[in-house]
Amino acid sequence: MARETVENLKKKHKKEIDEIKEAMHLRCADCMGYFIDSKECKNKKCPLRRYFPKKQTIESQGFRKKVAKLALDKKNDETLINLIVPPEKKVVKKIIKNKIKRRKKV
Question: Mean pLDDT over residues 67-78, rounded?
């Protein structure tokens, strides 16, 4: 009976749970230097370590775009953003470069 309740709650609040997971994954990205050097958490004291994103999540295109947007929001330089966004996604790079140019003008 209790198990059914937990499953129903998970279904009911799936959107909120997914948003929380994404926020934790982006926090890991920020802490790990946007996963440029490593895709493995080495901080044994971090309370989010057990929720560290899987390698498939880190390498997915959608997640990389969100990480690049996070780096852009933190006003990191263009070379760092080029390391974050995979080279085959030149369209995304072009959009990010244009945003950087616009911010520099302001």
Answer: 79
